[in-house]
Amino acid sequence: MTQQDWYLKQCNITQYVLRNANVFKGEIATQISEDIRLIVVAEQKPIQKIYYDILNAIHLTEEQVLFLTPQQLIIPADEIKTVLWFIDITLDESWVNPLTIQTTSLDQLAKAPQQKRQLWQKLCQYENYFHPERT
């Protein structure tokens, strides 16, 4: 016990330990702006060429994509009206909805033509979400 702890205890002052300091850093209180057209959820921000090729193919800029780690995704699934792309993340039942895309890691995806074809078909279904001004 430090001297400061001892003094606080003598004064009958309860010390609290902040367990999730990221809340104050703004990492958890994520706001989804109206400019966001796609939310990418992965352990690390994608840097692979295939990721940028996909964004280019669906005509989205990085400013229109919100990257979140699974720990940052605390908004209930039913409140999100944006397409969610989970990369190499196992989903629980609460996240399975019509606006969810789930793929393996991008390195594996780059080597799997059938998975790329399936991803492209899904992305084409969401074109109205990516570019609502075209409808």
Automatic annotation (TrEMBL):
<keyword id="KW-0235">DNA replication</keyword>
<keyword id="KW-0548">Nucleotidyltransferase</keyword>
<dbReference type="GO" id="GO:0006260">
    <property type="term" value="P:DNA replication"/>
</dbReference>
<dbReference type="InterPro" id="IPR036654">
    <property type="entry name" value="DNA_pol_III_psi_sf"/>
</dbReference>
<dbReference type="Pfam" id="PF03603">
    <property type="entry name" value="DNA_III_psi"/>
</dbReference>
<keyword id="KW-0808">Transferase</keyword>
<dbReference type="InterPro" id="IPR004615">
    <property type="entry name" value="DNA_pol_III_psi"/>
</dbReference>
<comment type="function">
    <text>Part of the beta sliding clamp loading complex, which hydrolyzes ATP to load the beta clamp onto primed DNA to form the DNA replication pre-initiation complex. DNA polymerase III is a complex, multichain enzyme responsible for most of the replicative synthesis in bacteria. This DNA polymerase also exhibits 3' to 5' exonuclease activity.</text>
</comment>
<dbReference type="GO" id="GO:0003887">
    <property type="term" value="F:DNA-directed DNA polymerase activity"/>
</dbReference>
<dbReference type="GO" id="GO:0008408">
    <property type="term" value="F:3'-5' exonuclease activity"/>
</dbReference>
<keyword id="KW-0239">DNA-directed DNA polymerase</keyword>
<protein>
    <recommendedName>
        <fullName>DNA polymerase III subunit psi</fullName>
    </recommendedName>
</protein>
